[in-house]
Amino acid sequence: VPAALLGSALLRRPAALGAAAARCAPARDSHGPPRQGHGSSKAASLHWTGERAVSVLLLGLLPAAYLCPGPAVDYSLAAALTLHSHWGLGQVITDYVHGDVPIKVANTGLYILSALTFAGLCHFNYQDVGICKAVAMLWSL
């Protein structure tokens, strides 16, 4: 068998692989225009800005928690940490969960988890020592 024929045969993609790749194509096109009911680029831009604002707020709350701990910082941390984790887990769902029903179930679970997290942190702040004092106690161990 001539080397030129062997080289071109090795470069061709088998038909079975081409068909499998077509079946595994992504369900959503993130580079195209938004489809009906999927939001707009303005909403996505505002969401991105909100995520960055919460991240910067967390950067400011961490030194504030150390320098002047108190109920205001505790509840601000509870809200910011819950929102930050909610948006982060929402992106995990967007990236890895596919299909209408699984996405609805995962999003419902995420909202329940986020509500319970915020309620638990607020309960901890109100009934116990609070987030700032708890972290200080952990550091003192």
Uncertain runs are none
CATH architecture of the domain at 70-139: Up-down Bundle
Number of strands: 0
Q: Which percent bin holds the helix content?
A: over 70%
* Radius of gyration, taken over Cα atoms and rounded to an integer in Å: 24 Å
Secondary-structure blueprint:
Blueprint: H1 3-11, H2 15-23, H3 41-67, H4 71-96, H5 100-127, H6 131-139
Helix pairs in contact: 3-4, 4-5
Main location: mitochondrion
Binding site for a ubiquinone: 96
Pathway: Carbohydrate metabolism; tricarboxylic acid cycle
What can you see in these coordinates?
It is a multi-pass membrane protein. One of its GO terms (cellular component) is mitochondrial inner membrane. It is found in: Mitochondrion inner membrane. InterPro entries: CybS, SQR/QFR_C/D. Belongs to the CybS family. The chain is mainly α and 141 residues long. It has a domain of 70 residues: 3 helical TM bundles of succinate and fumarate reductases, CATH 1.20.1300.10. It is 77% helix and 0% strand. The chain is built from 6 helices and no strands. α3 packs antiparallel against α4 and α4 runs antiparallel to α5. The longest helix is centred in the C-terminal third of the chain and has 28 residues. It starts with a helix and ends with a helix.
Keywords:
membrane, mainly alpha, globular, 141 residues, 0% strand, 6 helices, 3 helical TM bundles of succinate and fumarate reductases
